[in-house]
Amino acid sequence: MTTADVSVRVAWADDAPAIAQLQLRTWPETYAGVVPAEAFPSGPEAVEQAAALWHASLTRPADARHRALVALEHNRVVGFAVTGPASDPDCDPVSDAELAELTVDPAERGRGHGSRLLQAAADTMRADRFSRAVLWAVAADDGLRRFLTDAGWATDGAHRELGLDDEGTTTVKQVRLHTSLG
Q1: Which helix (H) or strand (E) covers residue 100, if one does?
Q2: Is 32 left (phi over 0), alpha (psi -120 to 50) or beta?
Q3: Bridge partners of 174?
Q4: Model confidence over 131-150: pLDDT tens digits?
Q5: Entry pTM
Q6: Confidence of residue 1 (pLDDT cuts 50, 70, 90)
Q7: What are phi and psi of 50, to 5 degrees?
Q8: Distance from C-alpha of 9 to C-alpha of 114, rounded to nearest angstrom
Q9: Between the N and C ends of the chain, which has fewer C-beta atoms within 10 Å?
């Protein structure tokens, strides 16, 4: 019997280029209809810059509870999640965590990577003694919201609009979801 070689683990500094490539590749889809595709950084130089930022955050996290996890298939990064203390003014950074990023390669969705990644992120946040988790989702991302609500998350009524450029002409509406980690 053949089994798939899939797993989730803590991200290593060596994963920085793969995470950067995945992030830059998925942004146009995540923000489709909100941000023009040409507004996103692309090309080898953009990947190198993003990889350097990821390498720095993986080797020198801002807080001991900032974590990055990667979903793997045959040792290839197919998704990643980032957790840490929640920074919203109405959250308690001691008890409230934020799932700051949950990304799975669009070509790899529907194969369990997102569920494994979400479960590992929840386990990590619990291990860091958080009792609740929040996540900001693009309001128009029905797929992500459905995935999270099917996993027990719910909207908490909070919403925001982020400016993505200096002029304030490109904005993204987000809703916050939350779940108990108890």
Answers
A1: strand 96-104
A2: beta
A3: 138, 160
A4: 999 999 999 889 999 999 99
A5: 0.91
A6: very low
A7: -65, -40
A8: 13
A9: N
